[in-house]
UniProtKB/TrEMBL annotation:
Lineage: Eukaryota, Metazoa, Chordata, Craniata, Vertebrata
Species whose genome carries this gene: Dissostichus eleginoides (Patagonian toothfish)
Protein's UniProt name: Glycerol-3-phosphate acyltransferase 2 mitochondrial
Molecular function per GO: glycerol-3-phosphate O-acyltransferase activity
Keyword Acyltransferase recorded: yes
This protein's record includes keyword Methyltransferase: no
């Protein structure tokens, strides 16, 4: 979210010496307020990329993620008047969301909604915390990028294939992509390829078929349409930093 503020020059004020759109360095000074509704929405969207049963994709998980940033001192709570205009990037046309019918994010309680609308957060130490958050984003970028590249690879692989051959072709594509870009080699390791495929299996993008010759992997029915694979790719890539 800070990257979007920096790159778009939004209503919040961010000043930095040497912003090139992708990398932020030097002494950054921020006056950025982030609304709770958007922070929890982003956390909830990212939770859909976790394997089933690993962590709950629910309102409580999203709120705990934001509370963790408060407890460790990265964010501080700012109470704002009711008529204060809250920063809301989610209403932009290019914002992508992923929700499920059993999602508990949307509360029926008017009190919960009202309280969320009246709360926002600021970075606690502007000279240091933005760089720390960008560092955390870079740590997440490796597996997210591997997911993006693997989703793209599905356009080029004729499935179903035996599991070992499928994995080999995926890793080969990841290595070719990294070599072409001459960077991001952490996203093309055997472990990265295995994790990306496992995540896409858990999400239902890749299907497992047990046949006499062993386990075969193929593209699930919903994602056999190129349009749906592209939507998934855009959904994941919007969280990539750098």
């Amino acid at each position: 979210m800070l990257c979007e503020v920096v790159s778009s020059g939004g209503s919040s004020r961010v000043r930095n010496d040497g912003v090139d759109g992708e990398q932020v360095s030097g002494d950054m000074k921020c006056d950025v307020q982030l609304c709770e509704s958007e922070l929890t929405e982003r956390a909830l969207q990212l939770s859909h990329l976790l394997p089933p049963g690993f962590l709950p994709s629910s309102q409580s998980f999203a709120l705990d993620a934001v509370d963790s940033l408060v407890r460790c001192g990265i964010l501080i709570i700012v109470e704002i008047p009711r008529d204060f205009p809250i920063c809301d990037f989610l209403k932009r046309d290019n914002a992508l969301s992923w929700t499920t019918s059993d999602d508990m994010y949307h509360s029926d309680s008017d009190c919960d909604v009202e309280e969320m609308e009246l709360r926002s957060y600021k970075i606690s130490h502007p000279s240091q915390c933005p760089e720390m958050l960008f560092f955390l984003c870079r740590m997440l970028a490796g597996p997210l990028r591997a997911l993006c590249w693997t989703t793209t690879a599905l356009d080029l692989i004729h499935t179903p294939l035996p599991e070992a051959e499928f994995m080999a072709q995926i890793q080969s594509y990841l290595c070719d992509t990294a070599n072409t870009k001459k960077q991001h080699y952490e996203s093309c390791s055997q472990e990265a390829a295995h994790t990306a495929v496992r995540s896409l299996i858990d999400l239902g993008v890749i299907s497992e078929q047990r046949q006499r010759g062993g386990v075969f992997l193929g593209v699930g029915p919903l994602f056999q349409l190129s349009e749906n694979r592209q939507k998934l790719h855009r959904f994941i890539s919007q969280y990539l930093y750098n």
